[in-house]
Amino acid sequence: MESLPVTIQYISLIGAIIFLLFIFKLIIKGKLREEYSIVWIVCTIILIVFSIWRKGLESIAKLLGIYYPPSLIFLAAIFAIFAFLVHLSIVNSKLQNQLKNLVHEIAYLKKQMTDQANPARSPDPLSINPGDVEVRTE
């Protein structure tokens, strides 16, 4: 495979460094949590390494038996995307369970507050006898 021109190497190196600085800026501003930024930092460092080490991608692809070295990048990217999506799905499920528990707790606390504010209006539902309840039909 023919080697990449030096200008493309410089452009990819500068682009990767700018992206790395952008990730650090998001971390500092608090818009990106550290646990998620690790993935982006590692991917950017890999891009920087392959931008500097021109024959690295070809060597690794040949070692793994991949004929076309850029397809190794796409294979790794697809694997990383799937792994990240599974991780985000797990985080989303945990957050949904926490939200459901908080909603139940808030509803219970609101009911307790209304029961304390109006003790005569809202009797304990367990102390009501079914025969004491009047059913109206209109």
Uncertain segments are none
- Number of continuous helical runs: 4
Strand content: under 5%
Class derived from helix and strand content: mainly alpha
Largest sheet: none
Question: Overall mean pLDDT score?
Answer: 84
| Number of beta strands | 0
Categorize the overall geometry: elongated
In N-to-C order, the SSE pattern is HHHH
Keyphrases for this structure?
mainly alpha; 138 residues; 0% strand
Describe the 3D structure.
73% of the residues lie in helices and 0% in strands. It is elongated and about 85 Å long. The longest helix is centred in the C-terminal third of the chain and has 49 residues, at 69-117. With 138 residues, the protein is mainly α. Helix 3 crosses helix 4 (69-117). It contains 4 helices and no strands.
Fold topology:
Blueprint: H1 6-29, H2 34-52, H3 56-64, H4 69-117
Short description:
By secondary structure, the protein is mainly alpha-helical.
